[in-house]
Specification:
Layout (H helix, E strand, L loop, with lengths): L5 E4 L5 H14 L5 E4 L6 H5 L8 E6 L8 E6 L5 H13 L3 E6 L6 H18 L4 H12 L5 H8 L4
Parallel strand pairs: 1-2, 2-3, 4-5
Antiparallel strand pairs: 3-4
Helix pairs in contact: 4-6
């Protein structure tokens, strides 16, 4: 790892685990290496406390399944240098993905909007407002989404 230009962490969504990893990476990595977290929900600023140089820390939120999903959210802290953000954005383009830049906000862009959408669909079923199939069909045909919210929730996993 000492010779890597970019190091991407992809551990489970556990803040203390990620802090421990980044503390070790800060000791091992070259001083100019870019450190990236694949967090999908943790604030990058909470992880940055364990990094020697937070100006070189970014978030890279890849979507599952990675081989099929073209989007990558690129998260920058206020301390992340513009050069680091540009380099990592170019890296994402170079691996044939579409980057979108976002500040360090809970859930970033997609999950910040998606989670309430999924939760409301589940609440509608729980209250007896509509059946699962009706909700999924309504959103596919009425909102033009490729899959309904409940199908999507099951697809992305409710157990992680």
């Amino acid at each position: 790892l000492a010779e890597c230009d970019v190091i991407i962490e992809a551990a489970t969504e556990n803040l203390e685990a990620k802090r421990g990893i980044f503390k070790q990476l800060s000791e091992i990595a070259a001083p100019d290496a870019i450190l990236a977290s694949n967090t999908s929900s943790l604030l990058l600023s909470d992880i940055s406390a364990s990094v020697k140089d937070p100006s070189r820390l970014v978030g890279l939120h890849f979507f599952n399944p990675v081989q099929m999903m073209p989007l990558v959210e690129v998260i920058s802290l206020k301390t992340t240098t513009p050069e680091v953000t540009k380099t990592i954005t170019d890296y994402v383009k170079g691996i044939k993905k579409t980057p979108v830049n976002c500040g360090d906000t809970p859930g970033f862009i997609v999950n910040r909007l998606l989670v309430p959408y999924l939760a409301e669909a589940m609440a509608m079923v729980d209250r007896g407002d509509a059946e699962v199939e009706a909700i999924d069909v309504a959103m596919k045909l009425g909102a033009g989404v490729p899959m309904g919210p409940l199908y999507l929730a099951d697809y992305i996993g409710l157990d992680t």
